[in-house]
Amino acid sequence: MRQRNKPWAKQKLDDHPQYVISSPDSQKGSWSDYFGNDHPVHIEIGTGKGRFITGMAAQNPAINYIGIELAESVIVSALDRIIEQELPNVKLMNTNAEDLRDFFEKGEVDRVYLNFSDPWPKKRHAKRRLTYKTFLSIYEDILPEHGEIHFKTDNQGLFEYSLTSFSEYGMLLNYVSLDLHNSDYEGNIMTEYEEKFSNKGSRIYRCEVQYR
Predict the structure, then answer these.
(1) Which residues lie across from 148 on neighbouring strands?
(2) Could you read off the pLDDT of 40-73 as tens digits, one per residue?
(3) pLDDT, tens digit, for every residue of 149-182?
(4) Measured at the alpha carbon of residue 191, what is the angle toward residues 156 and 181, in degrees to the nearest 5?
(5) d(CA 23, CA 73)
(6) Helix, strand, coil proportions of the chain in percent (round to 5)?
């Protein structure tokens, strides 16, 4: 979906260093110092407008959250949510997921969330999918042994591709739902896209996978 350009977004992000991590590479190896505690760190890649990450942070104050989003004009909406709710345990990174190894040591991230990622439906674009093997290798390098990825999408094709990708990488499928909103799963925090697609009658797919 094309996002409206907000030329003022970068300046607003720069004006809130207490919420937006300007030099994440300088924090590598010292995230507990950055947050001022030794709580687990969970990251969401493609955090969008921040509904999920702020909802999780409010629900779980003993977990530190980092929302990662490349588009300035999108992540600035997540910043607005954090400012409004005054959540101390959630920060933002305006950066590319391909660079995660530059920001985190092995085991500094305890869980990765992938919510409604771009499906890149054309076969020639498969390497851009956030569940492609190259990205799975990146996540493995920042997660602890047996670390987890939690994945949600409305796109059946992407979900099927991702299950295959996880399995071929040797990961364990701990939880799979082919219709999340009609399942017995509790504690779901919806994203903006999730609400939109669900209201249109789309089925929501979700899985939890673990590195061996």
Answers:
(1) 111, 210
(2) 999 999 999 999 999 999 999 999 999 999 999 8
(3) 999 999 999 999 999 999 999 999 999 999 999 9
(4) 55
(5) 19
(6) 40, 20, 40
Of the residues 118, 154, 179, 184, only one is catalytic, namely 118
Give the single-character DSSP code of 2: P
Q: d(Cα 179, Cα 81) in Å, to the nearest integer?
A: 28
Counting every residue written for the chain, the total comes to 212
Judge residue 66's burial from the number of C-beta atoms within 10 Å of its C-beta, 0-12 exposed, 13-18 middle, 19 or more buried: buried
Strands 148-153 and 205-210: antiparallel
Q: Give the integer Cα–Cα distance in Å for 198 and 70.
A: 25
136 Cβ partners below 8 Å, 6+ apart?
149, 165, 166, 169, 171
pTM: 0.95
> Exposure of 164 by Cβ count < 10 A (0-12 exposed, 13-18 middle, 19+ buried)?
exposed
Contacts of 15 (CB under 8 A, 6+ apart): none
Q: Does the annotation mark 15 as catalytic?
A: no
Tokens for 67, please give them: 């929302």
